[in-house]
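In this section we walk through a basic example: taking a raw amino acid sequence and producing a predicted 3D structure, encoded as discrete structure tokens. The instruction is simple. Fold the sequence below.
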Amino acid sequence: WPRKAGQGGKKSLCGPSFPELLKARVKQLQASNVPEMMVNKVDLAPLGNDKYQDLLEKVVAPGPAEEQPTPRGRGESPARPRNWVEKSKEEMYIRQLKVERKLSIAASRLALEGQAKAKRKDKAKAKAKAKKRLKKPEAKVAAAQSHAGSHNVYAHSKPKVVAVKEAAKAQRPQGVLKNKDSSQHKVLQQTIQSNLECFLFLQQPEEAERFLLLYHRSPVKRRLLNANAYNIVMRIWARKRVNRLFSMMESVGLQPSLDSYAAVLECMGRNQSLSYLPLFRCMQQLKNDGFHVDELFQKCLFEEDEKEKVLRAIRIVQPNYQLPPPPSPQTCKSYLLQDFYSKVSSRMVSYPKLDFSVQELQERFQQQLEMELNNTITIESVESTKPLTPQAIKAVKLGRKLLTTLRSRWHDSILQALQKSKHSMSKLKTVSGYNILYPYLCLLPDEEYVGIMLQILNTLSPQGESLAVLARELGSKVYNRYITQRKLRSRQLEKVQEVYEDYIHLLAKDSQVDMPGRGGVLGPEGYRDCSWPYMLIMRLGMHMLELLVHAVKVPRNALNPHLEHKLIPVLYHVYSFRSSWQIGLIKPHPIFSQIVSDAAETLLTFNSSAMPMLCPPVPWTSPHFGAFVLNDTKLMRFVDGAIQHQLLLDQCPPVNLHPVLDALNQLGNCAWKINQPVLDIIISIFNDKGNEKLDIPPPISEAPRPPAIPSNYSTMNKSQKHELLLYKKKTAEMHSLRMDALYKLSIANYVRDKVFWFPHNMDFRGRTYPCPPYFNHLGNDVTRAILLFAEGKPLGPKGLDWLKIHLINLTGLKKRNALQERLEYANEIMEEILDSADHPLTGRKWWMNTDEPWQALACCMEIAKASRSPDPAAYISHFPVHQDGSCNGLQHYAALGRDLIGAISVNLMPCDVPQDVYSAVAQQVEEFRKKDAEQGVKIAQVLQGFISRKVVKQTVMTVVYGVTRYGGRLQMEKRLKEIDEFPEEYLWEASHYLVKQVFNGIKEMFSATRDIQNWLTESAKLIAQSGQTVEWVTPLGLPIVQPYYRSKSTVVSIWCAGLIYPSLRFVHTGTFSSLPDTVKQKNAFPPNFIHSLDSTHMMLTALHCLRQGMTFVSVHDCYWTHALTVDIMNQICRQQFVALHSEKILQDLSNFMLEKYFCFGRAESCCQGLALASRGGCTFFQSSHADLLSFLFIQVRQRD
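The resulting token sequence is shown next.
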């Protein structure tokens, strides 16, 4: 666990000591550009071409099965590795002695406090009670000593120390446990419940009860228990006994919940010799506690046969009892969606149909289910089509044979290490780091854990990967497979199938079902949430990674038979400094990387959740149900370790989430297919050395040659080291980009003949994203070019014109020209368009010189097909046409502030010619410059002729997202550097001048924008200073909280042979620190608030397009539809923007903040008066702005 407050100056129990880190940091600074610090050099085997004969460095921690010293490299002094290990042992021993001394002192104080309390009792009863109290602690300590004696981690520790440790540990968390609303308290509760859920899954009631009693018997630890913890154990014991646990819960003052009574009734329902009287008393007690029997079936979640057993018990007392009817569906009351959800609306239509029958959708569901049950899917790489010479084919066969042999050995080694580790953990009976992990290593068959670790090994790049990333990935893979098995066991799959069967009838073309009132379907009963805390996932992943590092070895002479046969580790642990942080990395041995490269494998393995779905996504019906069939998917993405978003969603009334869920379902229901001609052209270039101009990364073989390196690394000068660093950075970037393109193209090639779907979820601001991470329509130009709508629609009378206009938009030309002028230009260059479509790689290649070349090529091909068809209006087109927003953030600010001039510049007002805000700002800045130049300002004179749209665009675009003058100056400087003619000596002064003028120009054009931003920023600052995070609710009812907390470094330790070894340090937020980060909270609030409005507008457009039966998808503020329906979508988009900003958005936000943060007692009437005063119109509260900030400031001070 992280150190508590006040311990910041103490040494961590794991990781290199401060002097070691300081020495390494000094060496790094002296080396200037050497990014990594490694200790314990190891001699690496030279390969056949002597390419890797330099010495590499690594950290080797002896594993459970190996305690021999690490082999030293040639010419290495034996003092250094021995010094490191000895120092670790010595420091650990000293720390332990200090801890033991403090623990004994703490135990003595506890005893004295107990005696002092006893003396305050009544004199007549003092003697008897004092004796009784003195005997019980002694007995407990003795029992703890005898229990822990054989299971102590340290060989030299005395048994009595364990009992004293437990007593002191119980005293430590008091500061946290007193605050039951703190994030740390909630995470600790979640950890306890996760462990108990594991025992439930493993059907180990004795272990669950033992674990619960460890906390129940401690007066301090007991505060971490809530009714849910007891309920889980009661469910485990439901088939045997539960009354004792029920009594335990009541004895500590916890009120039984509905789940408690459900567990008791389930226990009684399983009893074959069921008697009436105990049941009657239980039902009477349930009633006395304010519950009703019907609530058991309305609010409790049941798994397996639990519901039937509860019902059986109830009917013993009430023979005629019938299950309550399902609750009548609630209708969303949002003013923005009154027409959409109106049941009596004359616009009621059938649910938009897909071009599939009921049977076809059922078959596709089974295919998707099969893929998810397999957890992973292996596909052919597009590199498999690359031609090879006979000599290369022979080398590949030998490489693959060697790799197959090694993998078989690694499998056996990892399996043995895992089993040995589990055996050691099973002997531990105290709540230590390892035995907490033990149940999590029993959830799956051992073979599955081994498969997960090998999968990580197979995908590791030659440059290595962060320990934190690998640990999170390993832990998450175990969690996801556990969730899948849990869903299968709890009959969740059956419930999903029932819901999906109803959903199919809404979508199938051969079924007629009217659209439900809320646009969706009712969800299943659900299943109990059993999320694991982030820290737990990291600890589990770190343990698996440690097993992998120690178990996987490769012969030193694998590629060079002349060398000595000796096993060396495949993976090694290095430390790298990034800024002031020390970060652990795992890197593969060059021999391993060479073997993998020589094998040239053509198969890629992905998690099933990384692939597009083969059937329409499961509809979102709650924050816990939707998207994939079995794979666990969160409705809202959030920062690792943050739990506030999920708590908000769970507390939100379900009806308030209906619009958001329906919008996600609408986006996910869009069926896609592959544009095969374009994909084939891209793959051919990809396999032919790529093309950086066309955004197709070249292979590593095309990387620049490495610099000449002297045989002795220490003799390299600063320039050589810098050159080597740049080479390594370039090759790492090339490998990353190449693999990213390989994954995307291989997945696209796999589904080239299929119809597929992208399930969606959202981030904490409400912005939507496809769930599959690699291949989706949010990708780059290459990815978007190979995607088509699976459903085709005729172009209609204006469809071909929209295709041509879309093509000109993709070129980046004619931005300030009217749509008719763009259409005329497209007709003028039809010869170039047709040549590009017919001869993309051998013709004049006009398409290659556009802003989005691959999308332009795809559009050229579509225009060619349509124009050559007998009737272009009847041509069936699958091509998506885009409509992009004009600086969308400024559009929202202009609408919020009712800025007429700003609204015109971002196309919110009717104009004959499309307006370009970037050009308008550049023109404004140029006017400022001319005035200053006339007055003799030197830098204004230097800038003559250099102010352009391109120079100011990035800064104008990011003003809405809270860019500061400092950040804007850097953007300006970068743009000016790109101009060869600009004098370099004026870069700083010119960029400083320009950013000032850009901000002034925007302030003139958008007069209220800066006022709104300042109000949002200052409000967020005051809220954060009061110790709270900024929250708000979107106009569609989605609750939002900003996940910015003060960062805290955490060290995850690994135990080996009685020592703690440095393993993993990572930064996390929002889990153990409940204090918000004031700077991030205030800077992020304006852009995040605008993002939430942007998302709201998109969702409104999506829902109303759904009513019209249109295909609609979005890339944030860029909307896609068929050419036939572009005009309709444009109309809906504008109508919903007007409807959104007709709401009192800022007024509602002000009222929400005043009510949530600053209404205290007598100040409430003042807040209400202020809220009423600020309702004086749709414009921003210019009159009450200062008063509002002053009032908020006063309230914060009073609260502090």
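Looking at the output, two observations stand out. The mean pLDDT is 77. The radius of gyration is 33 Å. In the next section we compare this with other chains.
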